[in-house]
Amino acid sequence: MSLYPVSDEWFRSPHWDQAARADFEQRLSRAQAHDRSQYLHIKALALREARMLDEARNLLLRVTTQHPLTADAAFAAELLGDLAREQGRVGVAESYYRSVLQRWPSLNGTSWMVEVSLAELLTARGRRSRLQRGAPAPTEPTEPAAPDARR
Which domain holds residue 12? Predict the structure, then answer.
């Protein structure tokens, strides 16, 4: 149980003006070293929810570079893929998803949905590629296939 309501916790606030950034950085510098990656990724989630995607991305990059051996780094890398995907940067998103699968094959520290996110991304990319080339989109069969009469 926190001493502060969730909205008052310094690392959960979606505020990110100059004063809020300075306050966050000051508090972060006083936090235990092993907790800093959590504060960065929680703050990034708050900024993402407030649609401050570039600011969230910058904090997540700090998690992956300053705290690469933490579970938060796996989660941050996955979120970087999600942010890239939201911003239409599908190649970057694919790269992040693939790096998560390579670096953390157990998926510990992730949402456990990285493979699904990658599959959705590749499927959507394939659809756009077919549309751009003018190829017909695949269609679902209208009737089930007839059973093999030889059985």
Answer: 6-16+24-130
- The whole-model pTM stands at 0.76
- Enumerate helices (H) and strands (E) in the chain, giving the number of each: 6, 0
Lowest mean pLDDT among 16-25, 45-54, 61-70, 120-129: 120-129
* Closest alpha carbon to 98 in 75, 121, 114, 79: 114
Q: How far apart are CA 123 and CA 88, in angstroms?
A: 14
First and final C-alpha spacing in the chain: 65
CA 132, CA 137: separation in Å to the nearest integer? 11
Say if 150 falls within a structural domain: no
Contact 99, 118 (CB under 8 A): no
CA distances from 118 to 17, 33, 68, 85, 121 (A): 34, 32, 22, 10, 5
Residues 9-33, mean pLDDT to the nearest whole number: 93
Treating both helix axes as pointing N-terminal to C-terminal, what angle do 71-86 and 114-133 enclose, rounded to 10 degrees? 20
Is 63:37 a contact under the CB 8 Å cutoff?
yes
